[in-house]
Amino acid sequence: MNASHVSMLTHRMAICINTLAIAATLVLSAIAPSTAHAETFSGGQPDADTDNLKPGLAVSYFFKYFDHIKELDNLSGGKPGEPLEKLDHIAFEDGKVLGTDRPMGVGAHIRGLIHLDKAGEYTFKLQSNDGVKLLIGGVLLHTDPEIHAARWSPDLIYTVETPGWYNFTLDYYQRKGTSALRLKWIPPGGEEEIVPPEAYAHR
Prior knowledge:
It is a single chain. The chain is mainly β. It has two domains: 32 residues; 164 residues, Jelly Rolls (Sandwich), CATH 2.60.120. It has one helix and 15 strands; from the N terminus they run H-E-E-E-E-E-E-E-E-E-E-E-E-E-E-E. Strand 8 and strand 9 form a beta hairpin. It starts with a helix and ends with a strand.
């Protein structure tokens, strides 16, 4: 084997090693836990009008290929859907988005109330694919506005001084491919879980 062959093999081996290193980095980043710092919030008051509440979250759908969550800000007249029992949605490319019959090009206004029945710190985590914006009690807890693969927010620690039903506002869109929208919490003295259906209501 002459020197040119050795040089060529060395070059190819270097490319292979570099490719493997990149692949390993991508895999580790996908499975590693989030190292994002927790974010803390306070403020907001429970809603005084808790008469005639119905289970689940009200939702209205808009059918368009959104690029940014701000495009949902001033929309009205969406198509009403069946109330969402909880937010625990994951779908592959051929899966329907939330309660629609479509796998892509869907936006949603999700509205209602969430029952924060104890004083103290609630830790929320929101997974989204694609854009999302979440407010509780009128306080903006999280926004991840652009197109992205499924990923979790940092810990969103919301301090409740007065227990009760708090206004819940969530805007969401899925453009193409897979979709995800999941909300977990750790209530005071509790364990991490998907926020249960009994914690949601709408008028």
